[in-house]
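Re: S-adenosylmethionine structure - here you go.
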Amino acid sequence: MPTKTKKTTAKKTRAKRAPKSGFPRTIKGNGVEAKIHVGDCREILAELPEVKKSQLDLVFADPPFNWARDYDRHRAGDAWDDSRMSPDEYCDRHDADRPLGESKSFTFEWIDLCIRGLKDTGSMWVNIPDDWAAEIVVHMKARGLHMVNWCVWHYRFGQNTTGRFINSKVHALYFCKDPESRTWNPDPVLETSDRRAIYGDPRTESKRDGMPAGLRVPMDVWYGPYWGRIQGNNKERRTKHDNQLPEVYLHRVIASTSREGDLVLDPFLGSGTTGVVAHAMGRRFIGTEFAESNAKTACERIEAGPIRDIAGTRGESTAIHPKRR
Ligand SMILES: C[S@@+](CC[C@H](N)C(=O)[O-])C[C@H]1O[C@@H](n2cnc3c(N)ncnc32)[C@H](O)[C@@H]1O
């Protein structure tokens, strides 16, 4: 984590980049369009008609974590510089006291734009590590959003440490504008309940909660087959990216909190996982990405479609105990 404090304004945190070629690019298929923009999402979102008219049904954001990380710069030369911001420039908690749209720090500037673009029935997810999760939750609540779930993506390939506990999670923060009218569509993501998988409990075969027999809505800690970090010889892995999310993660988010034909935005597209899954599932999609090289990869992935049988991987048990009955 960078600790030095620089006296620059949020405006100065915008990076200059080389002119982009062939973007914005539109990909058609599955009866929908995916439109990919290259540049700083704060500048692009501020101009997008879909944001100005609050037409977004779902936002999923996996921002840079300000970990002084080199987003493929040594390979591509056009990466976002993730080391320039002081903690306050990245995420200033005083922004919560400023009106919507007048946040001064990087994180709350893009979050405010996404909130502005969200429909009243819309949902917004933020994938973020321990460092910033609390600040983001406070800001989103101050902006009037309702927190539906604080989910945790658990993986077992964290960096080894000996002087503290090993990190093995990222937070998946799930907010909506209106809890009464939010889009909620759990059927495609139901999984086998522990009562069926472990206990052989007959009560799960005649449920009264409206769920099909033996199934339940997943718990708020996410793990299981295909849920690991995309590393090594993982079939999903794009070699030029070390920050790719698993397809099943995006399937769970998109399937449960949007519907076919809905408009999904990812302001930090990276290697394109959100676009790949949204497009394959018949959602309209807008992605913004700073690095042109990443945006190109994302377009190729969206055109090629998912690696996993995303719809077919649902329904499995995530039980951590052996079957008892
Ligand atoms: C954590 S990665 C996203 C990974 C993505 N979820 C995936 O599955 O591949 C963050 C991405 O945001 C991009 N980025 C950083 N700052 C940006 C900005 N201001 N506007 C748009 N994209 C940005 C980086 O280039 C990087 O590709």
